[in-house]
Amino acid sequence: MIHATEELLAELRRIAGPDNVVTEAGPLEALSKDFYWYSPVLRRLLDAKRADAVVRPRALAELRGIVAACARAGAPVVARGAGTGNYGQCVPLHGGIVVDLSRLDRILSLEGGVARVEPGVRLGTVEAAARAAGWELRCMPSTWVKATMGGFLCGGSGGIGSITWGGINAPGNVKSVTILTCEENPRLIRLEEEETLKALHTYGTTGLLVETEMRLAPKVDYDQLIFSARDWDRLLDWTDAAARRAEWRKRLVTQFEWPVPSFFKPLQRHLKADEHATFLLVDRAQAGEVVRDAEAAGIACAYHSPLLDPPRPPFLTDFTWNHTTLWAIQSDPAFTYLQAGFGPDFRGQFAELARRFPGEILLHLEWTVGNSKMLHATADSAAIVAVGGIPLVRFRSEERLAEILECCREIGIFIANPHTFYLEEGGRHTNISEKRALKAEVDPKGLLNPGKMRTYPYNPFDTPGATA
User: What residues does each domain of the chain span?
Assistant: First the structure.
């Protein structure tokens, strides 16, 4: 069903300008998609989905007019940032209007260790400006150069920096968010501190994010380090210990099982065949101590380079978090991935996965703290370092993938399932009732990204089999 009537399109062109209403097939296809194709399941479900039109507002006043017009017309509204997400967050299940927020990209202030920004600002822009002012982002995805703040907060959870500060749900990281309701007379609602959590990681189902205050961390000058070893257990023991060394100031702790490092083509001259690898970002003043500690444990340092300031390549972060999956798929399209939080007996869980699925799962580990979505954690997890990760899976069939997911659940591995577009199935939402209540308040007609919040009782566009 086409929801973008000629009347609605005419009004959107009047509000945003003709050049900022996209209906041509090629651009419309591109702006209706993200990196959902990392999952063969989502590729099957979402390949045919696209918007009726994409609108690119330049200011809040335009956005308000666009939302009001869609509310009057009863058209679905799906928010889009840079499209770097992986779960089909910005893919419209029922057509309608995709609102591209990338032009609302101002840094409004950087004061007192807080960045107040519009949703379309790129995290790379914020990071550069923050570092120039003596600060840095607390956490950011591996796509930080291109990803937008709004897209990260509405679709992401953690990333680089989470080893020290946790993810976006960790207490204090997000100071406030301001959202725009989807009504004929849209309202602004500001949520502060803990109240922000009900608007985070909700795929734009609970209002359109129009402004954010994110707390920053004091700037650290980092060195980028690669360590390698043939002995997986030796490297794992050292990496885990390094992650838990509170006195070492870190922004990244990542370990890869061979042959994952072989997928990183630009790094091949630094990596040895059949050797597992650990990537670290550590305080430059402590890098020498870290290298000496590794060498004393029989771990070789294969690469040591400063992270330039202002930020510019090369970035080891381009090979971590879900960038790892992209490098693997580019090497072999049969790869897909999981998002896992391992328990205290993570070594035993690794061994059980290897026993049950020999050769099918390659370990890619990320260490985090706080209340990140990927933590296998308890209520006092703010003080706990946990082993999570994004293991690679050699995809055989959807049935085999389901077996792997069930095995993970059986042996106590928390899975934030990346093979679903349903909000609730892609992460841990202990506050889902609060998120449903917020959606009911801000989206009375059920127009915001309909179909993505599976437990929400009302979807005016749903028909049997439409999103199965």
Answer: 6-102, 107-219, 222-415
Q: CA-based Rg of the chain, rounded to a whole angstrom?
A: 22
**pLDDT tens per residue, range 166-189:** 999 999 999 999 999 999 999 999
Q: Which residues contact 118 (CB under 8 A, 6 or more apart)?
A: 101, 104, 105, 106, 107, 108, 149, 150, 210, 211
C-alpha to C-alpha distance for 342 and 319, rounded to whole angstroms: 21
The token duo for 458 is: 């009302």
Q: What is the pLDDT of residues 315-363, one digit of tens each?
A: 999 999 999 999 999 999 999 999 999 999 999 999 999 999 999 999 9
* Angle (nearest 5°) at CA 170 between 168 and 174: 55
DSSP letter string, 162-184: HHHH--TTSTTSEEEEEEE--SS
**pTM for the full model?**
0.94
107-219 is classed CATH 3.30.465.10: yes
The position carrying tokens 């370092």 is: 385
